[in-house]
Amino acid sequence: PITFGATLSYCALLTLSIIPFGRVHSTTLQQVNITKPQLFDIVSWVFIFTFFLTFAMLGSDIYTALTSDLSEIRKMVYAGEEGNSGSITGIKWWLMLPNTLFSQFSPIAILFFYINISQNRKSTLFNYVLLLSSITPILSAILIAGRSQIIYWILSYGFCFCLFYKQMNPQQRKLVLRPFLLIAGLMVLFFATVTIARFTTHRLDSGINTFNSVVAYVGQPFLNYNYFYNNYTCHQLTFNRILPVSHYFVLDPNWTLGDYRALIMSQTGMNIGIFYTFLGDLMVDLDKSGMLIFVLLFAITSTSLSRQENDNTIPIYRMLLIQLLALIPLQGIFYYSFHRV
What is the pLDDT of residues 23-38, one digit of tens each? Predict the structure, then answer.
């Protein structure tokens, strides 16, 4: 049963997490102050280099995945197999190191793209190549027929469009919308192909209507959150997933997400490897009170960073922090995604 308490906390905490970022859009932001333009450009080139190197390394594997049965690839992934990604060893491991280190920061490439366009920095060709580099994580996701990276990219792009909308003139808005329509169109085509393949197979296996399966899937984050809100009792407070880097390097480098999920299953009989937004992960790891404290601190921090200077400018370092913090609610549409297996 859907309860009032779960619904209220879900809607209120998500809203509280989003509202602070509206401050940047709602004011007359005129410019992002780039204090070190050379460093700015070097970082841009790192993203571009990472994209082309990743594409060179994975190009043939991507082609194989796109010409294979996508539903079978997903089954292999869920079964713990590697799908088309294979094991990376030897020289390929070293060549893929830039991807490992930098690809998950690709939303910054989108931010840099918008700054360049809105402030007339660099050529249109360079800016479009920089934007192309932002899809690096999607290249790896194709190998496992993954869709979440596509949603993350579209949400990150839309977020930056909202931030810079008032700062751009009509011509600049066209420059950012044209590549988006092309890239997003190709992404949606792949997304739809994976979704249809997956749920058509699910329908054949279980006799459930494909459309109803998709609708149920879309509603899972709230329904799962509601279920855990009403039935889960926190057995131990842990920051393993919430602060993964510090936990790994300071406390326990042997900790794994699989072991943690198995521990919770043994204690409660409940599977936490599901979609219930980032709020669900916070609730499981920190209890309801910890979830509330986390969101309050997050909102206060985001509001503080979103303030502008008296001349309606904002330093580049604060724009970077805003972009990175915004990934929590943006990617949190599924779960708290900053701990990788």
Answer: 776 565 678 889 899 9
